[in-house]
Amino acid sequence: MQQQNLPKQNIPTEKEKGSTPVIKILMVDDRPENLIALERLLRHLDVELFKAESGNEALRLTLHHDFALALIDIQMPGMDGYELASLLRSDKKTSHIPFIFISAIYKDHINIFKGYEAGAFSYITKPFEPDILLNKVQFFIDKYKQEQELKETHQKLKKNIRDLNLAYDELKSFSYSVSHDLRSPLRSIAGFSEILIEDYYDQLDPEGQKLITRIVNSAKNMSTLIDDMLDFSKLGRQELYPRKVDMHQLFQDTYTQLTERMEDDRNIEFKLSPIKENYGDKQMLERLVTNLLSNAIKYTQKEPVAVIEVDGYEQEGQYVYRVRDNGAGFDELYKDKLFGVFQRLHKVSDYNGTGVGLAIAKRIIFHHQGQIWADGKVNEGATFYFTLGLEGSS
Question: Cytoplasm: present as a keyword of the record (predicted)?
């Protein structure tokens, strides 16, 4: 315990010792022997004690210190304890300080009630049991510590919010740069390359034709990657507009749109079982279903007959949607990488793509408070599962 036995004219300024705030207790009594007795009783506590022999001296101390607790005698000349309590309560800086009245004279119920009416958290009459006072003081010490921890947590939270807002602004700036600054030279590369193909392709030898075709394809892939990355970043701040969604119709319409755009003839068996409607943002769920079906179509392209199945089932109070295919599958050892950005389990030369589609799917599921996972085996197909957990889901 640290003690402060201060001359009335010399009031020190408040300083914090180390990184942990010092817990300070104010003792107010016009009789020095009572202050000494309180000091001896509280000396083993990890606090700093301040003694004041009048209400005015107590008020001066509160100008420079933040007290966790005040122990106030009631009967004092000039300004009694009730008046001091009233002044403490009326000042914004000190209104939060809890105080305990200690009295040897005013023991009747009227004065005790008056003490509580003045804002006292407790009222102790002399002579008192030391353990009773110690327990009450310890309670307010613990309470003060908790309040300080809460304030620190609140300050950290405010800082985190400021940092998040800053990161959000930086992300918007980055997205703008990606969208404009990178697209412009990319469009030039693609545009001039296509001109070369249209006007000079026949003049190039086979190696030159191969290289210019590769440049055009790379530019297209880069443009697709930029689009996917922008979509991925936008999902982090996109607002949800939930409503009932017919998931059966959504899978059917999405599959039809995807296969209508296919340039090569594929033999695909699409098996869509009756599945439940659900609750979510339709635009996001359209992107989710598009990514999952596109994934199935892509990785079954080497199969003579591609089979893609969509169904669902109840499990532990949730409805699970399932998308299965008989395609390339994947090694179960690496399935944790499936939903990471730029994580690919197959060669680009075998299956093109940006490695962002499943990461977008996972983020969409995250916004819908659901889960997504997968299992599969190499050359034996893959199965993707997901749930939607928004309130109001069927």
Answer: no
- Do 112 and 182 lie in one domain? The reply is no
Q: Which element (helix H / strand E) includes 307?
A: strand 306-315
Q: According to the model, what pLDDT value does residue 13 have? A: 46
Burial degree of 239 (CB within 10 A; 0-12, 13-18, 19+): exposed
Q: How far apart are CA 42 and CA 60, in angstroms?
A: 22
Please give the tally of structural domains in the chain: 3
Element (H or E) spanning 373, and its range? strand 372-376
Q: What is the pLDDT of residues 111-122, one digit of tens each?
A: 544 544 555 566
* Same structural domain, 202 and 266: no
Structure tokens at 33: 């022997």
What separation in angstroms does the CA of 235 have from each of 222, 245, 342? 20, 19, 17
- Identify the domain containing residue 328 by its residue range: 242-386
Same domain, 217 and 263: no
Query: Which residue type does 272 have?
Result: L
Can you say whether residue 314 is alpha, beta or left, with left for phi > 0 and alpha for psi between -120 and 50 degrees? Answer: beta
